[in-house]
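Entry 12.
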Amino acid sequence: MDSALSSPPDSPPVYLPQGEHQRLKILVAGPLGIGKTTLVKSLSQIPTLHTEERMTQAAVGADSLDHDVLREKTTTTVAIDFGRMTLPGDKIVLYLYGTPGQRRFAPLWEGIAFGALGALVLVDTRRLNESWEVMDLIEERGLPYAVAVNIFPDSPTHDLADIRSSLDLAPETPLVTCDAREKHSSLNALIELTAHAITVAGVEVS
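Predicted 3D structure (C-alpha cells):
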C-alpha cells in the first residue's frame, strides 16, 4: 500500500493556535471517485497524507467503473486521507479523515470513525444511488452528517429539494453544493457540517 505526503500547500503550513481550542475529528466520506482526496487536499493547512493502491482486475465485481467519470481512474484510497485545518477564530481545529465508502471496508471504517464528531458525505448527481451505502454506514454508527453535492463539469443540475427527496434526507440534515477543488467552497460545506454536528453533540465552544 502506498502511503505518501502530498506536496506542500501553496501557503506555509499553519501551526496549531496558541491557547485553548476545541479539537474535532471529521470524516469526509462518499463512494469511489467522488472527490474525497481532492476536498481534504484543498482544505488542509498541512501537507496531506494519502494511502492509495493501484486498481487491478481484483476490483472487478467489487467496484463498478462503468460510469464515464471512473473509467480512467487508476488508484483508490484504501485507508485514509488525512489533513488538518483551523477554522476562522482559532477556536476549532479540525482533523480531516477521508475514508473509503464501500461496506467491505467497514472494519477499517469503524476504527477511523471512532471519536468523530460527524461526517461530510460527498455525492454526485450523476450517481446518487452510489451514496446510499456510505450513508447507511454513517447512520448505523449514529454519526451526524451533512451532504455536499460535489459539482463536476458535466453533472446535471437539480434543485436541492429534489436531491434531498431522492436521498431521503431528514429535514435537519444540511444539504449544500460545493466544488471540492475550491477551498472556500469546500470550507462552506465543512462549516455547515461542523455547526450541525456541534449542535447535535452539545459541544460548547467559547
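Annotation: The beta strands are 2-5, 22-29, 49-54, 75-86, 92-98, 118-123, 145-150, 175-178. The domain at 2-201 is CATH 3.40.50.300 (Rossmann fold).
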